[in-house]
Design brief:
By secondary structure, this protein is mostly helical. It is built from seven helices and no strands.
């Protein structure tokens, strides 16, 4: 690998590491499952690396990356054909514009969310992990914890309220 290649690789990695949360947030706003979002993010990163030679230093990295992510999400839905939801180009453009506008706030919210999750009791942390990290349905979580789906729903609702209040306090009342 030549010096120029090494510098390009280092620059790409630096840009990706600085902006991966924003790109991931965009992807997650379009797919409902964190596992699918992880897969799409991985594929998006690979495509970005392959196309990085086309990236111009005058361009802003995040909009460029989000455009690639958009096509990866569309490809995901086309391949999986599991979604009954079909996003129009106008809707995708609107979501992209809104996400770009909210990116700075999203980083603050993500930090606050992680901090608040750590403050939850152990059982509530398990609920969050099963639902959002593992992608379990409420029915699956209930079966896993020997609770009814209804009880799991109420527990998740309570956790959402606790997290929302914690985030509001952490951010001084500011929410997305």
């Amino acid at each position: 690998m030549g010096k120029e290649d090494s510098e390009n690789q280092e620059r790409f990695i630096r840009l990706l590491m600085l902006n991966d949360k924003s790109i991931y947030a965009y992807i997650l706003s379009l797919v409902s499952n964190a596992n699918d979002a992880d897969d799409i993010m991985q594929e998006t990163s690979a495509v970005m690396w392959r196309k990085f030679s086309e990236f111009n230093t005058n361009m802003d990295f995040v909009p460029w990356a989000i455009t690639i992510a958009r096509y990866q999400v569309l490809s995901f839905y086309k391949q999986k054909k599991r979604s009954k939801i079909v996003y129009s180009d106008d809707l995708m453009d609107s979501i992209k514009a809104e996400v770009e506008k909210k990116l700075p706030e999203m980083d603050d919210h993500l930090y606050a969310l992680k901090k608040c999750i750590k403050r939850l009791n152990h059982v509530d942390q398990i609920l969050v992990k099963l639902r959002y990290d593992k992608g379990y349905t409420l029915e699956n979580i209930g079966a896993h914890l020997s609770k009814s789906t209804r009880a799991t729903f109420y527990a998740m609702s309570r956790v959402h309220q606790v997290l929302t209040q914690c985030i509001k306090r952490t951010l001084g009342g500011k929410v997305l």
